[in-house]
Amino acid sequence: MTHVRTVLGDVRSGDLGVCDAHDHLFLRSPRLPGQELDDVCAARAELEAFRAAGGAAVVQWTPHGMGRRAADLPALSRATGVRIVCATGLHQAAHYDPESLGRLRGGRLAGLFVSELTEGIGTTGVRAGLIKVAGGFHGLDAHARWTMTAAAEAHHATGAPIAVHLELGTGALDVLDLLCGELGVPGERVILGHLNRSPDPVVHRQAAASGCWLAFDGPSRAHHATDWRMPEAVRALAEAGFGDRLLLGGDTVVAGARSVDGGPGLPYLLRRVRQRLTEAVGPELVDLMLGEHPGRAFGVAWA
């Protein structure tokens, strides 16, 4: 039996409930000055709005060193009734100051990931439930290869899934060549994010053939065509026999995108995206994408 590791403990995969498979309650980056997600009250209000829309779980992909506020997550989960999954891992180098990144390069990165998955994040006692890493634009640089190699080592030690930020939706096949080909991570333990940002049906099918999970998360902040093409991409994958590999997420990364600040926020996934996808592929598949699939994608037979 597999379990999803939430900030309040492990939950049976089948009991996760309606899930936003990729989002952020907290996030800081030097690339987004003045747009930080760092407000506990706003995070609580956002979770309450998501709960009111029918949501039950949120997977926060914010990795190590980007202000994930792990210590605040258990209280937020208890107060709102929304299950929260926290991440370990490392984003692109541009999201860190050189000094902190240098300290990480001086240690054993895989050991940090394993520790946060099995023992807890710092002194919080909160254990991560996934490893987040990132590719580059149409390729992988040395930093991406370093972090993905560490993620693969941590996966082999724990079974934890590896969730991958694809820069503007590109580089999916390079990521799979490295993680699944060179590093031996099973395809079903890899989750590719942002595929809606590069709606190439051929690449989507090739990626799906590896057995990986395909996450469609948005809405887009700039490339609006990806929003109306996303249902087409999901339908094409379902018709090609890959409907069992699909996930949905909101990916709220800046303060102005929260629903409590006038943006779409977490509720938009259930308030609008769900409705639009239902028209394209029917309610049964959409229910699976929001319910059963996240439990399977993030479920692990934790030791």
TrEMBL record:
Binds 2 divalent metal cations per subunit. Zn(2+) 2 binds at K132, H165, H194. Pfam families: PTE. Zn(2+) 1 binds at H22, H24, K132, D251. Transmembrane segments: none annotated. PROSITE patterns: PHOSPHOTRIESTERASE_2. GO terms for molecular function: hydrolase activity; zinc ion binding. The modification N6-carboxylysine is found at K132. It comes from the Bacteria. PANTHER family: PHOSPHOTRIESTERASE-RELATED, PHOSPHOTRIESTERASE-RELATED PROTEIN. This is Phosphotriesterase-related protein.
